[in-house]
Design a protein that fits this description.
heterodimer; A: 486 residues; alpha/beta; Fumarate Reductase Iron-sulfur Protein, Chain B, domain 2; 3 domains; four-stranded parallel sheet; 25 helices; B: 232 residues; mainly alpha; 72% helix
């Protein structure tokens, strides 16, 4: 059931504005069960519990005072730029939660409500609006870079989603996946059982052999290895080339005996990052326990923005001083390139290539230059997509939106519109997006807007150009692939 | 009237100024407490350099002036120059400081002071107009967002008129009293309103710190609400 929008919205100056733009009305965000019973009381109870047990209070205290409402964030928000609806302004969303906090959890707010008749009151309509606005945000955090006060609207959006999830308001697609990952039998979001994983890996090995004339056996459940590999589990179903690219790099670099995949837990996806502290931590614990079981030394995360960020940022937070180091596959590959451990043939890729920065790894400045350095080492026609790097635009499927099929049109018409324009403007033949979510969203955008470009992962491209000693040369593989495509 | 002025410049000034300093001090202590005690061990992963660089870049936001709404951004920037420099370095204010501290401080020339004051008043009016006449600004504005601008405007306007008798419609004493009252009201309000960003701006840029979530908190929240058997 789609969210019912409130009839009018207070404009702050006593008047009320027309409810919404057509586009917004046609494409509401899809949240199940928007108003459970006693939602206001339950929301406030959940908020109180969150304030009691977590560290958010000083943040909210500070934000309540410094929120400047200068609207700079609106200029940067790709969703607002398309809808033009003031309720899509990041600061507006943040204000909803801050007002609730001020009114019910600060002395000043509680005192003021006693003396004034028309102060802020939380209603089920407002909660419904929060469900809508918090889930319309792609959580790309671009607005954070432009806020003079340094407010992290992404963090507040996430906190809002967390509190909503505690009263049963969340996106079904995300919740079902997390339930399977934490409480299901397969412990992964795509519900891939171990036998299916094994047959997928067998398929990858056969394909690899056909491609390179090299017979490999993927090391499963090997103990005492340097790297325990986790990718977005959906890659096993949807992105065989990315995984074979990963395999090729590991093999060519001579590190085949240094890595393994655990068969108890092989999913790097962590939707907790998008909407729940509780789920985030439990998924991290699950991931860490697999590494401990295998006596691994590092966590190696495949091409996935949010999986990389959730492991990189939160394994140390929840794991303490003994936490396993987290390495992104992009960092690992760059290291191999720099040390000359792998050879990438510069004559293979003739197309124009551009790079899309996944928000989760680029916004914080963690992975911006590494993939560019790798690409420039073997791609002749590299072209930047501007703005890029930390200032990139979200693909439009961030914050878990890409997993929700019901909002496909929202993702195409609103969330991804700016990105689609940007891809068209750049005019590259290939867009590299090292992120499972971005890849899915960008592929859908390319199809929807009929953009003449191909979307793939970085290791898909590496797979084409890598030279492995004793294996079939890249040039020959390229000819074979051309024949196959004919 | 002079007796009132003496009271306003004496005990009332001290009291209100103290409220401001202590209030801001409280913010400082609370923020440091969050940083050092509550987040403690988890802070070793913080990108300190990056955060410091960004804080400085927003405190001297020259490179941010050409992005966003250019008129608003520049007005805001110029307003802050006047709002910081004039109250601190105006000759009459410096005389007060010197009386209290005995230090010899640099003084703004009268022309520079006038230009900066007029600039501050003008840019404040631009900000007020922008907030009032643009729909997208009105939607996110609350009454306090307007009133704060008027409250800040008051001491600059009254101070300017008190210093220029030819433009002053009231008696000098009356205008001077209004200047004192409005400034002292502002002192009191600083810690309780968004003016507390005088201190908090140094801490907001490190929101990055708040991604360092508290281990075990998620379980405790779920237990508190749904008991030990809480399910996803």
């Amino acid at each position: 059931m789609a969210v019912q929008m409130p009839v009018t919205v207070p404009s702050g100056d006593g008047t009320e504005m027309p409810p919404m733009l057509d586009l917004r009305e046609k494409l509401p965000y899809h949240v199940e069960n928007p108003t459970p019973e006693n939602v206001v009381e339950r929301f406030l109870d959940a908020f109180a519990a969150v304030l009691e047990y977590t560290d958010y209070k000083p943040l909210l205290d500070s934000y309540c005072r410094t929120t400047n409402k200068c609207n700079r964030c609106s200029v940067t928000c790709p969703v607002y730029r398309v809808t033009g609806d003031p309720r899509d302004i990041p600061c507006y969303k943040t204000t909803l939660l801050l007002e609730t906090y001020k009114r019910y959890f600060t002395f000043g707010g509680m005192a003021r409500s006693r003396f004034t008749q028309n102060g802020f009151e939380l209603t089920s309509e407002l909660i419904r609006e929060m469900a809508d606005v918090f889930y319309r945000c792609t959580a790309c955090r671009r607005c954070t870079l432009e806020c003079p006060m340094g407010m992290d609207h992404g963090l507040i959006t996430r906190l809002g989603r967390y509190i909503l999830s505690l009263v049963g308001i969340s996106s079904k697609a995300l919740q079902v996946s997390v339930r399977e990952q934490l409480e299901g039998e397969t412990h992964n979001t795509s519900k891939i059982p171990k036998p299916a994983l094994l047959s997928n890996i067998e398929f990858l090995q056969d394909e690899f052999e056909e491609m390179f004339d090299v017979k490999l056996e993927v090391p499963l459940d090997r103990e005492d290895r340097d790297y325990v590999f986790f990718c977005a589990v959906s890659d096993y179903l949807m992105e065989p080339d990315t995984l074979m690219g990963n395999m090729a790099v590991l093999y060519a670099a001579g590190d085949w005996d240094r890595w393994t995949i655990g068969t108890h837990n092989y999913d790097g996806i962590n939707y907790g990052l998008f909407y729940s502290d509780w789920h985030l931590e439990r998924i991290i614990r699950q991931l860490v326990s697999e590494v401990t079981r295998l006596k691994g030394r590092n966590i190696l995360v495949g091409e996935c923005g949010h999986a990389s960020r959730s492991a990189h940022d939160f394994v140390p937070v929840f794991g303490g001083r003994e936490a396993y180091p987290v390495v992104s596959f992009l960092e690992y590959t760059l290291d191999c390139v720099r040390k000359g451990k792998i050879t990438l043939n510069p004559d293979i890729i003739e197309e124009t290539v551009t790079y899309h920065d996944p928000c989760n790894i680029a916004r914080g400045g963690w992975i911006v230059d590494q993939p560019r350095e790798i690409l420039k080492s073997f791609v002749r026609n590299y072209r930047e997509m501007t703005p890029g790097g930390r200032l990139n635009y979200c693909c439009g499927g961030g914050g878990g939106l890409v997993s929700i099929d019901e909002i496909h049109e929202f993702r195409m018409e609103i969330g991804g519109k700016v990105k689609a324009d940007q891809m068209m403007r750049t005019g590259a033949d290939i867009v590299i997006a090292p992120c499972a979510n971005c890849k899915k969203q960008l592929k859908e955008l390319v199809e929807y807007y009929e953009i003449p470009t191909k979307v793939m992962g970085l290791h898909d491209l590496i797979l084409k150009a890598i030279e492995i000693p004793g294996a079939k040369p890249a040039e020959e593989r390229k000819e074979e692939a051309a024949l196959f495509e004919m | 009237m002079q007796a009132w002025i003496d009271i306003l410049m004496g005990p009332v000034f001290v009291l209100t100024f103290l409220i401001m300093v202590l209030g801001l001090g409280r913010h400082l202590v609370l923020q440091l407490d969050t940083l050092l005690r509550r987040k403690g061990d988890r802070l070793r992963y913080m990108p300190w350099k990056k955060m410091a660089r960004e804080t400085v870049s927003w405190m001297v936001p020259v490179r941010h002036l050409t992005t966003g709404n250019v008129l608003f951004s520049n007005s805001s920037f110029l307003f802050h120059i006047g709002a910081i420099v004039v109250p601190l370095f105006l000759a009459d204010h410096i005389a007060l400081w010197e009386k209290v501290t005995g230090w010899n401080l640099p003084v703004l020339g009268p022309v520079v002071a006038d230009v900066l004051t007029v600039l501050t008043i003008f840019t404040l009016l631009v900000l007020l107009a922008y907030r009032s006449f643009f729909r997208k600004m009105r939607v996110i504005s609350r009454p306090s967002d307007y009133s704060i601008l008027l409250l800040v405007l008051a001491p600059f306007l009254t101070g300017f008129l008190a210093a220029h008798p030819s433009m002053n419609p009231l008696r000098w004493e009356a205008m001077f009293m209004l200047h004192l009252l409005s400034a002292e009201l502002l002192f009191v309000l600083v810690p309780f309103t968004k003016m507390s960003h005088i201190v908090l701006i140094f801490f907001d840029r490190i929101s990055e710190m708040h991604w360092q979530l508290k281990p075990g908190a998620g379980d405790r929240v779920a237990n508190a609400l749904y008991g030990k058997e809480a399910k996803v």
